[in-house]
Design goal:
CATH topology: Metallo-beta-lactamase, Chain A
Number of strands: 14
Number of helices: 9
Distance between the termini: 34 Å
Organism: Empedobacter tilapiae
Family: Belongs to the cyclic nucleotide phosphodiesterase class-II family.
GO molecular function: 3',5'-cyclic-AMP phosphodiesterase activity; 3',5'-cyclic-GMP phosphodiesterase activity
CATH architecture: 4-Layer Sandwich
Strand order of the largest sheet: 6-5-4-3-2-1-14
CATH superfamily: Ribonuclease Z/Hydroxyacylglutathione hydrolase-like
Largest sheet: 7 strands, mixed
Bound molecules: zinc ion
CATH class: Alpha Beta
Structural class: alpha/beta
Order of helices and strands: HEEEHHEHEHEEEEEHHEHEHEE
InterPro entries: cAMP-PdiesteraseII_CS, Pdiesterase2, RibonucZ/Hydroxyglut_hydro
Protein name: 3',5'-cyclic-nucleotide phosphodiesterase
């Protein structure tokens, strides 16, 4: 009986403590400051089994997280053991340079991405001219540290070393350049992370509409409550000069589209973690002000800080 109760107690504890999702930003900006570029570690709250969502900055971000008391381990252990793999949204340097530079010290792990991203890594960065081939395909000598996991669009797959399932969707980042988003979920919660993306209207694509339709059931059921979405420029940026990025105005335009699918009321209380702000002049302040001032769907906006953990309830 005692043993039986112990088992029940343990099971309840596991259910109660393992399901919330935590995010540790290693880098939050979309340019300029090379010590703080797009990278977010995501794990279940009670574990240290993280997937890195992009990898613009790794080393400086881990150090900042240690400084802040988010991590209590040495730098190398976090890089090698905590990070179980990388999702790289697209081939731009501000999303992957931290991974390349730290590859000599890293351990064996998968890199998830769409075929376009993997081919950039294979043909442009993990080459003898640019660095060395730390991956498992491409130029010789092949060092076989990272292994490419080419994800099929819209098909769920297991994220190794975690309890998460991932589903990758295509984005447009100055049509026809492709970027991607990943839905990360466990049994009870989900987070949708977007790489760089333009709005459907500007890009003349239907990628975001496709995603809104795909995630509608998960928003309606309450499983998906958090989007990590880029807002690179303020509303003053001319639409001709967006280079495949979003503004507060375009976020609201796209939320309107999502609202058509799920119903406006279901958007209320949705959390958006704002990523990829370009830290130039007063751009950051302007973006924050514009998002908070005109917030017709009552979104809970979070502006992440490097090294500061966010727990999603
Ligand atoms: Zn970027
Ligand atoms: Zn980009």
């Amino acid at each position: 009986m005692k043993k039986y109760l112990l088992t029940i107690g343990f099971t309840i504890a596991t259910i109660a403590f393992s399901q919330n999702i935590q995010i540790v930003p290693l880098g939050v900006y979309g340019g300029s400051n090379e010590s703080n570029l797009s990278s977010y570690l995501i794990a279940e709250e009670s574990t240290n089994n993280y997937l890195a969502l992009d990898a613009g900055t790794i080393y400086s971000g881990i150090n900042k997280a240690i400084e802040n008391g988010t991590f209590n381990e040495d730098q190398n252990k976090i890089l090698r053991d905590y990070i179980k793999g990388y999702f790289i949204s697209h081939g731009h340097l501000d999303h992957l340079s931290g991974m390349i530079i730290n590859s000599p010290e890293d351990s064996n792990k998968p890199i998830y991405g769409i075929s376009e991203t993997i081919s950039v890594l294979k043909n442009k960065y993990f080459t003898n001219d640019a660095w060395a081939n730390f991956a498992n395909e491409g130029e010789s000598p092949i060092l076989n540290k990272y292994y490419y996991k080419n994800a099929e669009i819209g098909t769920p797959f297991t994220i190794e070393g975690t309890n998460f399932t991932g589903t990758i969707y295509e984005l447009s980042h100055v049509n026809p350049l492709k970027s991607s988003a990943i839905l990360v979920e466990n049994d009870s919660n989900a987070v949708l992370y977007f790489g760089d993306t333009g709005a459907d209207r500007i890009e003349e694509t239907k990628n975001l509409t496709t995603i809104w339709k795909a995630i509608t059931p998960k928003i309606k059921s309450g499983k998906l409550k958090t989007l990590m979405l880029e807002v690179s420029f303020s509303n003053s940026q001319p639409e001709k000069l967006l280079f495949g990025h979003l503004t507060p105005k375009l976020i609201n335009e796209e939320l309107g589209e999502l609202g058509k699918q799920v119903g406006k009321n279901k958007l209320k209380g949705l959390t958006i973690i704002v990523t990829h702000i370009k830290p130039k002049g007063d751009n950051e302040e302007k973006i924050k002000e514009e998002l908070l001032k005109y917030n017709p769907y009552k979104i809970n906006y979070i502006f992440p800080k490097q090294g500061e953990k966010i727990v999603l309830k």
